[in-house]
Amino acid sequence: MRQIVPAGQAACTGHADRTGHADRTGHAACTGQVACTGQVACTGQAGHADHAPPVPAATAPPLSPRMVFLVVFLPFALGHYLSTLMRMINATLAPELTAALALTPGQLGLLTSAFFFAFALAQLPVGVALDRWGPARVQLPMLVIAALGALAFAGGRDFAQLLVARAVIGLGVGGCFMAAVKALSTWVTPARLPSVQGYLIAVGGLGAASATLPVRIVLEHSNWRSLFIGLASALMFTAALIRLLAPPQAATVQRQPLRATMAEICRHPSFREAAQLVLVPHMVFFGIQGLWIGRWLGDVARYSEDQVSWLLYVGMGAVIAGAIAVGMITEWAGRRGVRPVRVAAAGVALFVLVQAGLVCGWRPGCALLAVLFTLVGTVTGIEYTMVAQGLPGRLTGRAATCLNLLIFLGAFAVQAGFGLVLDCWRPNGHGQYPAQAYQAGFALLVALQVPGLAWYGWRRWRRPARSGRMDHHPATSTR
């Protein structure tokens, strides 16, 4: 976070736009040695600006990197931490919930995936609210809703009550990650966003890790109902922290109807490029990581519950390392003229290969495959960098939440559908499903991801990639 400027002020990145024109993000460019990141042009011959109406400039003064870390990154990252913990926690609680409510795999998948469905429903309204009122004002009521959902889950007595409570939690935390992305994109220059967003995703990985072995340790001294009461308190504390610390952000003037804005986002080449290549793998990563990878370790690899908790914990540690590594690699590659989409393609190919190992049932490497699934799967988070760098700043909140809408609807379908696939087989006396059931489920997921990778390869073959630095947005490319 070396160059920190509020939105709407000019700042130079130190790289030239080769064309001498502004990119389609609304930033003016110059023909000298620097390109602007604000709304005004540098000295020299300025290119054309974005066709959209101007956005009012923020009135807040620049923040130092330390202040950005303390008042922007930390409070919003804490919200993302809790959101990921709540999303992942059912993977650890599955045995307790199944025993308490006598759940089938289909019911367990539906209960857990209700989070994704409600989370997805919140995305478009949250995106509009973030662009209009700013992340600090949006997060307070949303986290209060999540806290109420956690209290309702703690008091739930049957499947229906827990299902509704789980959905309310998903609705409430539906803006945590996107609010953090919006806040960081306001105060961090685009060239630094990949690594900073990598740190943010790593914090989410820490939340996912906390949902594994630490939760298992808590359950040895308490129960899952008391645990959710504690989580409700943590959500309320985070809401107050964001409201008190987060710097104000100027409101954005809304000039286009939501329908027209969504159409503009979906037609944008950068959004289509990210969606075609990374969207389905991201759905699979979220849907399987949040529940079924743990059940696979227990049913197929025959690990005990404590061993499964430990492996999930290690896997979530791999998420932290993977998220930081993806951000640093993307930023390093960008300085050498390699676009984020090429990093994404390599990562998605590796992710599909790991899943192919799950399909083949490589028993000696079950633990390794489970950890690699979470480590390599973090590359799917590069979608947000591709969208943040490629679309106009006035659309970043709604574009990212539109992407989240598709991801979480897909994760809901993956998580619930995988359980339905398992229901096609009979469990043994211990409630474990055969390896063939999991192999069929993973084979179906691989078949869904291969077309996007093949489509990217075909386009690359038809139109060889042009090199371009990270600060040169690929808005005019259809690759």
SSE order and pairing:
Layout lengths: L64 H37 L3 H29 L1 H21 L3 H14 L3 H12 L5 H18 L2 H9 L2 H22 L12 H10 L1 H31 L5 H31 L4 H21 L5 H12 L4 H9 L5 H27 L12 H28 L17
Helix pairs in contact: 1-2, 1-5, 1-6, 1-8, 1-10, 2-3, 2-4, 2-15, 3-4, 3-5, 3-8, 5-6, 5-15, 6-11, 10-11, 10-12, 10-13, 10-14, 10-15, 10-16, 11-13, 12-13, 12-16, 14-15, 15-16
Account of the protein in words:
The chain has 479 residues and is mostly helical. The chain has two domains: 51 residues, no CATH class; 396 residues, Up-down Bundle (Growth Hormone, Chain: A). It is built from 16 helices and no strands. Helix 1 runs antiparallel to helix 8 and helix 10 packs antiparallel against helix 11. It is globular, with a radius of gyration of 22 Å. The N terminus and C terminus are likely disordered.
Summarize the structure.
The chain is mainly alpha-helical. The chain has helices at 65-101, 105-133, 135-155, 159-172, 176-187, 193-210, 213-221, 224-245, 258-267, 269-299, 305-335, 340-360, 366-377, 382-390, 396-422, 435-462. It is built from 16 helices and no strands.
Largest sheet: none
The CATH topology of the largest domain comes to Growth Hormone, Chain: A
Number of helices: 16
Compute the CA-based radius of gyration: 22 Å
Distance between the termini: 30 Å
Mean pLDDT: 79
* Class computed from helices, strands and strand pairing: mainly alpha
Task: Tell me the CATH superfamily of the largest domain.
Answer: MFS general substrate transporter like domains
The structural domain count equals 2
Instruction: Return the CATH class of the largest domain.
Output: Mainly Alpha
**Shape-level CATH architecture of the largest domain:** Up-down Bundle
Shape: globular
Total strand segments = 0
Q: Detail the poorly predicted runs.
A: 1-60, 465-479
Helix and strand sequence: HHHHHHHHHHHHHHHH
